[in-house]
Amino acid sequence: MLHLLQKPLEAAKPNRRTFLKMSAGTVGGLMIAMHLPRAAEAATGDSGLVQPFVHIRPDNTVIVLSKHLDKGQGTATGLTTLVADELDASWDQVSAEFAPSNPQVYANTLFGVQGTGGSTAMANSFMQYRQAGAVAKAMIVAAAAQEWGVPTGEVTVSNGVVSHSSGKSATLGELAGLAAQQDVPAEPQLKTPDQWVYIGKTFPRIDVKNKTIGAPNTYTMDFQRDDLLVAVVARSPRFGGKLKSFNASEAEKVPGVVKVLQIPNGVAVVAESTWPAIKARDLLEIEWDDGDAETRSSDAMMAELKELTAKPALKVREDGDVDAALEASASVIEADFEFPFLAHGAMEPLDAALLYDGETAELWLGSQIQTIDHNVAATILEVPFEKVKVNTMWAGGSFGRRAQADSHPVAEVAFLAKAMLAAGMDPAPVKIIWTREDDMAGGYYRPMSAHKIKVGFDGDNNVTAFKYNIAAKSIIKGTPFEAMLMKDGVDHNMTEGAHDTTYAFPLMNMDQAFQETKVPVLWWRSVGHTHTAYVMETMMDRLAKQAGKDPVTYRLEMIKDDPRKVEVLKLAAEKAGWDQPAPEGRYRGVAVHKSFGSYVAEVAEISLRDDGTVKVEKVVAAVDCGTPINPDNIRAQVEGGIGYGLGAILRNQVTLADGIVEETNFDTYEPIRISDMPEIEVHIVASNEAPTGIGEPGTPPIGPAVANAIAAAKDEWVTNLPLTKAGLV
Amino acid sequence: MSVTLKINGETRTLDADPESPLLWALRDELGMTGTKFGCGIASCGACTVHWDGVPIRSCQTFVGDLEGAEITTIEGVDGKAAQAVQAAWNELDVPQCGYCQSGQIMAATALLSETPKPTDEDIDAAMDGNVCRCATYARIRKAIHLASDKMEA
Q1: Cα angle at A508 between A502 and A513, to 5 degrees?
Q2: Residues B62 and B111 in one domain
Q3: Residues in CB range of B4: below 8 A, 6 or more apart
Q4: Residues of B numbered 102-121 whose beta carbons fall under 8 angstroms of chain A's beta carbons: which are they?
Q5: Which residue in the set A74, A348, A644 is minimally distant from B99, CB to CB?
Q6: Are A674 and B128 a contacting pair at CB < 8 A?
Q7: What is the pLDDT of residues A211-223, one digit of tens each?
């Protein structure tokens, strides 16, 4: 998932226009129109009460406008919960729609642009959506007071019913039109936590019904219109390759094919429906120019990464002279870790639909950063920002894949729409779909990385120095996010979870080196934590062993000034029965990690099959994500985060041979399946702290918890992932 | 080529390339988009439909082979098992992104129609071909057991 470091972005907020300009950097700059939506509607009241974030319609439905993409993480339900609570709506009358693309109103306050990621949805929306609900409620109350001729203080709202002690009552919908004519309160009264009726309790997700009946028009893939054309694109099989020449004569003969068009990144086959497009694409004869392409194997790239970690590089953290301290140490542990490229593999492959008539455009896609998608479409199509309408669709997963700095799926469909008009075609909506092979071999991976660790000890096995060198391709460097997210050339996305550890090492240095490659890389669920948590938490077990201490006891001694981390670790250990030996034939491992403001501890229990392979039997998790909005959704996200991380460490890797991706579908990039899934318990720490993320934080601890359980069985820590490489899967 | 078959109990005629997977005929020709495209190689189960009640992968089932077939999709699946499955899925909030869930529900319905009281091993065997990248598997398992209880009640 997108991880935008909060501090740099807050600092950059006043420069949002600069950012927007940069964000379209690859296709030219663009300014954004000041444009507040639906002001006219709000004035008349004919549409009910129309406010940013919430509409109360005359038919008594309450629509919450989710500024965040819901790609499964439950955000639309969460935001609806906040509004419904402050508004005192009934749960039956609320539903959610995605907000229009409008950064003036719907920006992620932590990013400065409209976008979802970094598990920030609740953190940045908690007050905003509660305030929106409270504003709407105040306007409803004022309308009731006016209608009934009573003081506002005597009007109450409960479960969607507005009433007065005189016996008068009305629904929210009945008062919505009059409410629209009331003053908008600047500082509405918010409830205190003891007054909450929905927050902190479990109410069913608002999107589940549609997702169990195959409802139409939910996902971009399902977007349909009678005049819709479908396209697939032949792209270079090597990253950085360019089109040299192509022959479409056979492809054009396939019935249903409308046009074959060259676009900047390849050849698009446009057809009346999907199947002819896929079939015809296989008949294209294409020559690619690999002059600028990545032609190395992933093995060669890993060898380079390992060389990079052996040398001093950019200082991310420098407490002192770590080499001298290691030299002076009584003993030293060294470890080298290797992590592969990972594909996101969301169930819905990438897709985007666009209608462009030469003057206006309309997009349909699971847009994760609406402002950039919007900007890129407007810039390529050379139309003003306000002439592009973005319809955000529900996304069939993302795990980071839909959060791109370059909006490449939108750029591609925009170039295609332009090419269609240039070729004399009548304006028609066109949907580009990526096949699974396109999606999986298309790059934008979790970067592969190498990590070199040296830890020194004194004669009593206390840590004296911790040296950590990491090398990978930077996700941020060279993108429009660079100016905002990198400070002094350092990419903290790569090292988060390590350079900022709260373990009390007397001296820690961390260097980072950047690999240059044409393989595009991207945020993947929990970003840097996907590798740093594994390294740090398996190292903690090794340090505990060196000190002759229990892994939980040792961690508790080493956690400095981090009471919430202590709390989740203790809770997970207690619930897992850590003080008792593991059942016969079972082995346990523990890990605790903070990411995106949330703390998660996990105890994994494994067994070994007769063939020596690992079966993860059970995971007990404890989580502190601040004020829990919807406990069952927190549990669901942690369950899913564990499964997602577990699948990756068990057997997922994207490898390249001569620059060509070898794993192109789920037969070779084998996802976690139901028979792999452990039993999972999730325990939530009661908290009044501000809510933090939960989409990602369940993922980082599972890898090291399992690795530590394997070490409990075999006294050996796996350092080269996935586990298939060690014959453990 | 023209093929006549029954889809969700209705006789339909598909005028399509015999090599076209049923998946795309359902989605593009008939506008029934509940059946999802996930992998195209029968490795993920998102496109699961029933042929005479048996779960099949519509991405590897071809229009040319479907003369006289009786196909059921998520839009038309009904009966005791399907109703219990959909109710259990809602009760336990199984879906996250939801994209695979049509296929999960079709596979679970077929399982319960055949085996009303499945063991965990039965569930693994019947459901292992259905991928959920959100890893909602723990809830899928629980929901199948719950649906089984509902069918008995």
Answers
A1: 110
A2: no
A3: B11, B12, B13, B14, B67, B68
A4: 102, 105
A5: A348
A6: yes
A7: 999 999 999 999 9
Domains identified in chain A, total number: 3
**Whole domain around residue B33: which residue ranges?**
2-72
The verdict on a CB contact (< 8 Å) between A73 and B96 is yes
Residues A241 and A286 in one domain: yes
The Cα A669–Cα A535 span in angstroms is 23
- Provide the 3-class DSSP secondary structure of residue A95: strand
Q: How many whole angstroms separate alpha carbon A87 and alpha carbon A251?
A: 57
**B75, B96, B124: best mutation site toward chain A, by most A Cβ within 10 Å?**
B96
How does pLDDT run along chain B (153 residues), one tens digit per residue? 899 999 999 999 999 899 999 999 999 999 999 999 999 999 999 999 999 999 999 999 999 999 999 999 999 999 999 999 999 999 999 999 999 999 999 999 999 999 999 999 999 999 999 999 999 999 999 999 999 999 998
> Distance (Å, rounded) from C-alpha A62 to C-alpha A49?
9
Which of B72, B94, B124 is at the close of a domain? B72
CB contact under 8 A, A255 and B73: no
Residue A498 pLDDT greater than 50, yes or no: yes
B42, B72, B102 — which closes off a domain? B72
Mind listing the pLDDT tens digit for each residue in A256-303? Answer: 999 999 999 999 999 999 999 999 999 999 999 999 999 999 999 999
User: What is the C-alpha to C-alpha distance for residues A298 and A304, in angstroms, rounded to an integer?
Assistant: 10
Do residue B58 and residue B7 come from a single domain? yes
Q: What token pair was written down for A128?
A: 């905003």
pTM of this structure: 0.94
CATH of the domain at A529: 3.30.365.10
- Residues A218-247 have pLDDT tens digits of 999 999 999 999 999 999 999 999 999 999
